[in-house]
Design a protein that fits this description.
heterotrimer, A alpha+beta, B alpha/beta, C alpha+beta, B: alpha/beta, Rossmann fold, five-stranded parallel β-sheet, C: alpha+beta, Phosphoribosyl-aminoimidazole Synthetase, Chain A, domain 2, globular
């Protein structure tokens, strides 16, 4: 029940923003999140940003995943 | 060109490594993990993870499919509103083919019912602003991921002044349903894969009481294949430790507290109530109804509709499937009189239903 | 010439004649059509004949990358091409809605002329009818096409064998996404152009060069590559396994699909072909396709294997799952 896609914020106008997913763009509402600026990443669901995506946390998870891929034998 | 924050979580080499690690972590009988969310059900089937991990993990699909658990009577009333009062019904695409007691929105559209598919509840408000002569009722179906968006649309309509817009609410909350399932010994759940975006709203702390009371590990996991594999590994690791913690694989979006602003908006617009779950019955404290201050936007009040019960006389076993007690092939209607083209019950509705996922993606 | 199409334009009288002369013949004029006989006389045709027909009702009639006219001509040419037929002539039957701006009709006819020229086919005959306002959807077009089969090549589903490769000539879903955006009901914008294109020169060139190494071809229109492959698996009675990681999709189409919850596998294409090719010729066929402007994105996307007829997908994470018919059109989802 939760299709949400990571989208990059391209423009912000008050409580609205234009976001981009791979080149597809949509105007969306920022009613549900505070402190969103151009360049941020948000999760887009049903025309709203429902949460921000934290690039640092993403990088932590990706680093963990890289360990898996590099050393799969070590338990 | 990759889609950032999506493609990294679909990498084949990483996936293979995690699958190997899962094999090394657990070699007992298949662990029964319930994934509550319809999006997880579909992702697990579509990505072939069900098949990849068969023998190690039995994924039970829970009732986290808002379309599947919306009572047939809700659809019947919506159709009647459209036919008898000339109301325009605005809906997410997910609802269009769901069978009510006798018919569906799609079938009725063929006979003249005005049904418009929208991507966002805000589009339904905009529709009402354009079609000033008609009433527009938005079918507000969803869990905590979607409820804030519906709340936002209601507030927007109230503040802008769109008198011909209202919402027929059928929103539900997940933790209460998870509790019912966790407390039912027949389901035998050994771990919960918790929904990514519901958790983004309610926060991973929401599952702490569940993990403690029923000693079931809970891991919040994203919807990409690698998220699901990693979340599964984390659950299996807890299983080997005998632990029952709440962990968060989807830390890039879900936090412990969730989205306070969204939750605040929801509590401004909605009030908790008991809710009927199709195939299951009434579950206490699992529903939200529109608060009195917004009653002019509540279609149930505006049009004087009675509450929706869950009485249905059907040999369909969606109820047991939604509780994870049986799997789709166990239902006598599966694949015979119930198929995606002619669904007999909500679980077969195309898209996120458990039976639909089995039917469409199962390898013979 | 009036600015809008009137019912009188379809009545077969002077208005019809005026419309045909000033709007149609000025664009399509050729020795077969010019005499305006009741039939186009094609002369003696050497070779075995292929014959196809299709109706086009797309809305809106104009979209990024093309219009209903281009679609109509390309669609019919491609149906002939995937059967190995050189196009000879097409018909053009128009049903116009009263009130249609003549300028819009002229634009569509220009596209048809251009596509016919590119596809080297004669527009040999046609018809024009007008329906009352509200009884049509601006323009409907039906085209039928006649072609001659290349000597020595026939579509041969029965020769498809395990080991044969599945080649797709380019990215999936461009046409349907372009039309979706043009309908503008979802407030999405993306630079996606319809891929409508006449594939005869490219495909016939491949057939002449590779002959029976190309076993069978289809063009994946409604229902996308997914439905076409399911049908190909049925006609060949073979199992096809697709590799998800190899399926070509442009980033913008992917973006739209991720936002709306669509699967590009089932989105319509209008300028693509699926070829089932012997393993020994597969790489050379892909290279040859890539030298054509409409085949730049060509790639092997799967393989025919042993097993019962059907289509499976090996996912990016190594799982295997079935590819089944979609139920109805895809709709924007929250789940």
């Amino acid at each position: 029940m939760c299709l949400g896609v990571p989208a990059r914020v391209m423009e912000v106008t008050g409580e609205a923003a234009t976001v981009d997913v791979g080149g597809a763009r949509r105007d969306i509402s920022l009613m549900l999140v505070d402190g969103v600026t151009v360049g941020d990443w948000v999760i887009l669901h049903a025309g709203f940003a429902i949460q921000k995506l934290d690039p640092e946390e993403a990088e932590k998870t990706l680093a963990l995943l890289r360990e898996f891929a590099d050393a799969p034998e070590i338990s | 060109m990759r889609l950032r924050y999506l493609d990294e979580f679909r990498d084949p080499a990483t996936a293979r490594a995690i699958v190997d690690r899962i094999g090394n972590t657990w070699d007992g009988p298949p662990v029964r993990l319930m994934e509550v969310c319809g999006t997880h059900t579909m992702a697990i089937a579509r990505s072939g993870i069900r098949q990849l991990l068969s023998g190690r993990v039995t994924f039970l699909s829970g009732p986290g499919c808002p379309v599947c658990v919306t009572p047939a009577a809700y659809l019947d009333r919506a159709i009647a509103l459209g036919k008898e009062r000339g109301v325009i019904l605005a809906t997410f695409g997910d609802m269009v083919r769901v069978p009510g007691t006798r018919s569906s929105l799609e079938r009725e559209r063929g006979k003249g019912l005005d049904v418009r598919t929208v991507y966002s509840p805000l589009d339904a408000v905009a529709l009402a602003e354009r079609e000033k002569e008609k009433e527009v009722v938005f079918l507000g179906v969803g869990f905590e991921t979607t409820t804030p968006a519906i709340a936002g649309a209601i507030v927007m309509a109230a503040e802008t002044g769109v008198p011909n817009f209202s919402v027929l609410s059928s929103v539900r909350t997940i933790p209460g349903a998870m509790e019912i399932l966790a407390s039912d010994p027949e389901t035998g759940i050994e771990g919960f894969l918790c929904p990514a975006h519901v958790s983004a709203i309610i926060g991973s702390n929401a599952y702490l009481p569940l993990a403690e009371k029923y000693a079931i590990p809970c891991v919040v996991a994203g919807f990409e294949p690698i998220d699901i594999l990693l979340g599964t590994l984390m659950l299996l690791r807890q299983k080997t430790e005998g632990a029952a913690r709440v962990e968060n694989e989807y830390a890039r979006v879900a936090t412990r507290e969730g989205n306070r602003k969204a939750l605040g908006l929801v509590s401004r617009v909605f009030e908790e109530c008991d809710a009927p779950w199709r195939g299951i019955g009434v579950l206490p404290h699992t529903g939200l109804r529109i608060a009195n201050r917004f009653s002019s936007l509540d279609a149930q009040i505006k049009f004087g509709l009675a509450d929706f019960g869950t009485e249905e006389h059907t040999p369909c076993r969606c109820g047991d499937i939604l509780k994870g007690k049986i799997s789709p092939p166990d239902c006598p209607l599966f694949g015979t009189t119930c198929t995606p083209a002619e669904p007999a019950g909500p679980c077969m509705v195309s898209g996120e239903g458990t039976c639909s996922a089995y039917f469409k993606y199962g390898v013979p | 010439m009036a600015e809008k199409i009137l019912l009188a334009h379809g009545e077969g009288g002077k208005r019809t004649r005026d419309l045909i002369r000033s709007v149609v013949l000025t664009r399509f004029g050729n020795p077969v059509l010019d005499p305006l006989l009741d039939s186009g006389l094609l002369g003696r045709i050497d070779g075995e004949i292929a014959f196809t027909t299709d109706a086009y009702i797309v809305t809106p009639p104009v979209f990024p990358g093309g219009d209903i006219g281009r679609l109509a001509v390309c669609g019919t040419l491609n149906d002939l091409a995937v059967c190995g037929a050189n196009p000879v002539a097409i018909s053009c039957s128009l049903i116009l809605e009263e009130g249609l701006p003549v300028g819009e009709l002229e634009g569509v006819l220009d596209s048809m002329r251009e596509a016919a020229r590119e596809g080297a086919v004669t527009i040999a005959c046609g018809d024009t009818k007008v329906v009352e306002r509200g009884k049509g959807d601006r323009i409907f077009i039906t085209t039928s096409g006649v072609g001659t089969l290349l000597p020595g090549w026939r579509p041969s589903p029965q020769t498809v064998m395990p080991g044969d490769r599945v080649i797709l000539t380019g990215t999936m879903g461009d046409h349907q996404v372009a039309v979706l955006i043009a309908r503008n009901r979802l407030e999405l914008s993306a630079e996606v152009l319809s891929d409508a294109a006449p594939l005869s020169p490219m495909l016939l060139d491949i057939l002449v060069r590779f002959g029976a190494d190309v076993r069978f071809m289809r063009d994946p229109t409604r229902g996308g590559v997914g439905v076409s492959l399911i049908e190909m698996a049925e006609s060949t009675r073979r199992r096809i396994i697709l590799e998800e990681a190899l399926l070509p999709v442009s980033p913008a189409v992917r973006g739209v699909c991720e936002i709306l919850g669509f699967d590009p596998l089932y989105l319509a294409n209008e300028g693509k072909a699926i070829l089932l090719v012997s393993p020994s010729a597969s790489d050379a066929v892909v290279s040859a396709l890539r030298r054509h402007p409409y085949g730049r994105g060509a790639a092997v996307v799967g393989e025919v294997t042993e097993g019962p007829p059907g289509v499976l997908l090996r996912t990016t994470v190594g799982g295997l799952r079935a590819v089944d018919y979609p139920v109805g059109d895809q709709l924007p989802r929250i789940c």
